[in-house]
Design goal:
This protein has 12 helices and 10 strands. It is α/β, with parallel strands linked by helices. The strands form 2 sheets. It has a 5-stranded parallel beta sheet. α3 links the parallel β6 and β7.
C-alpha cells in the first residue's frame, strides 16, 4: 500500500513512523521548512517510553512528485487545510482513501445533515475549498485518542494513548474501513471500526470544546481548571449547549458534563494541546474546535451563550497574542 502523511508534526510523525516501522508499506510525507529538512536528514523518528523508532521516508513539499496514493493521512491543524487541500490533487486518484487525523469538526461532518447540505461550515471550510478538493466519497473518518508532542522539527514524542477510531463518514461498514484498520493495527495502534464515526467525533469534541481553549486562555493545567468551581460550571454550561446541538444533528450525548469531567480529571496536571500551542507561540486551532460549534448553533437557531462567550474570549486572546491570523468573515 502506498501511504502518504500530509503534515509530519506530533501526530503525523506518530502515525507515519509507526506505519513505516511496520515495514510492509511505503510511507512518504508532505512537509515544509525545518520539518522537511529534518525528515530528509534523519527519516521518520518517534520517541516512545522504551526507545526511539526510526524508518526511512521519501519527504517532499511537492505532492506531484509522489503521484496517486492508496491512503492519504492528513495530520494538519484545521486552519491550515483550506489553503493546502487544493494542492493535494496529485495524491488523490479514483480509489484513494483520505483519512483526516485531525481535531475538532471536520469539513465532511455535516455532509448528510439537513440544513448543511448546500454549504458546509464556513468556520472550517471557507467557500467549500476543502470539499471541492477532497470530496466526501474519498474520506474515511478518523478519531485519534493519543497525545503526542514535537520537541523539535521532524521528531515526534509519544505521551499517552494508542487509540484510533475509523469509520465511513456517512455511516455503515465498508471493506476499505476494514483494510485501513488492519494496516493501522499491524503498526501497533489500538483500532476500532465504527459504524457511526460522526458520533465518535462529536464525543471527543464535547470534551475538547472547553478544556482546550480555557487552558490556553488561563495557562492552567487540567487539574487547576477543573478544581475551580466557577470555571468548571462554565465549562459544563458550554457542554450542555453542545449536547443540545448534538441531539439535533444525530449525535446525542448520553453523559452528563460531570461524568466527562471525572474522566478528564484522571489526566491530572495535564497540558492540553492548545495550551502547548499557545505557550509555544503557534496558531491556535480555534475554528474547528470552538468556532464550528458556535456556527452550528447559529445555523440551527440554538442559543449558545456560554459557547459564544468562550469563542469570543479565546479568539480575542489568540488575536492579541498573534495566534489567530485570519479575519473570520462568518
Amino acid at each position: 500500500m502506498k501511504i502518504c502523511v500530509v503534515g509530519a508534526g506530533a501526530i503525523g510523525g506518530f502515525l507515519g513512523t509507526r506505519l513505516a516501522s511496520a515495514g510492509t508499506d511505503a510511507v512518504s510525507a508532505i512537509a515544509i521548512g525545518k520539518t522537511l529538512d529534518a525528515l530528509r536528514t534523519y527519516g521518520w523518528r518517534l520517541d516512545t517510553q522504551d526507545a526511539r523508532l526510526t524508518a526511512p521516508v521519501r519527504a517532499t513539499d511537492d505532492p506531484s512528485e509522489l503521484g496517486h496514493q492508496d491512503l492519504v493521512i492528513i495530520a494538519l491543524k484545521g486552519q491550515v487545510l483550506p489553503t493546502v487541500a487544493p494542492g493535494l490533487a496529485p495524491l488523490i486518484g479514483p480509489e484513494t482513501t483520505v483519512l483526516p487525523a485531525m481535531n475538532g469538526v471536520p469539513w465532511w461532518f455535516n455532509a448528510n445533515v439537513p440544513g448543511f447540505t448546500v454549504s458546509g461550515l464556513q468556520s472550517v471550510d471557507p467557500n467549500d475549498r476543502i470539499a471541492a478538493a477532497i470530496p466526501v466519497r474519498h474520506v474515511l473518518g478518523c478519531v485519534v485518542h493519543a497525545s503526542c508532542a514535537s520537541p523539535e522539527p521532524g521528531l515526534s514524542r509519544h505521551v499517552t494513548g494508542q487509540g484510533l477510531i475509523v469509520g465511513e463518514p456517512l455511516g455503515g461498514s465498508s471493506a476499505r474501513a476494514a483494510t485501513v484498520a488492519s494496516r493501522l493495527t499491524r503498526a501497533g495502534f489500538e483500532v476500532s471500526v465504527s459504524d457511526n464515526v460522526r458520533q465518535d467525533v462529536w464525543y471527543k469534541l464535547w470534551g475538547n470544546l472547553t478544556m482546550n481553549p480555557v487552558s490556553a486562555i488561563t495557562g492552567a493545567t487540567i487539574d487547576h481548571l477543573l478544581g475551580d468551581p466557577l470555571v468548571r460550571e462554565f465549562c459544563s454550561s458550554a457542554m450542555r449547549e453542545a449536547a443540545t446541538i448534538g441531539k439535533r444533528i444525530g449525535c446525542a450525548i448520553a453523559q452528563d458534563p460531570e461524568d466527562r469531567h471525572a474522566v478528564t480529571a484522571k489526566l491530572g496536571a495535564f497540558r492540553t494541546s492548545m495550551l502547548q500551542d499557545a505557550q509555544a507561540g503557534r496558531a491556535l486551532e480555534l475554528d474547528a474546535i470552538v468556532g464550528a460549534v458556535h456556527e452550528m448553533g447559529r445555523r440551527l437557531e440554538i442559543p449558545t451563550p456560554a459557547i459564544d462567550a468562550l469563542f469570543g474570549l479565546s479568539r480575542l486572546f489568540a488575536r492579541e497574542h498573534g495566534l489567530y491570523p485570519f479575519a473570520a468573515g462568518w
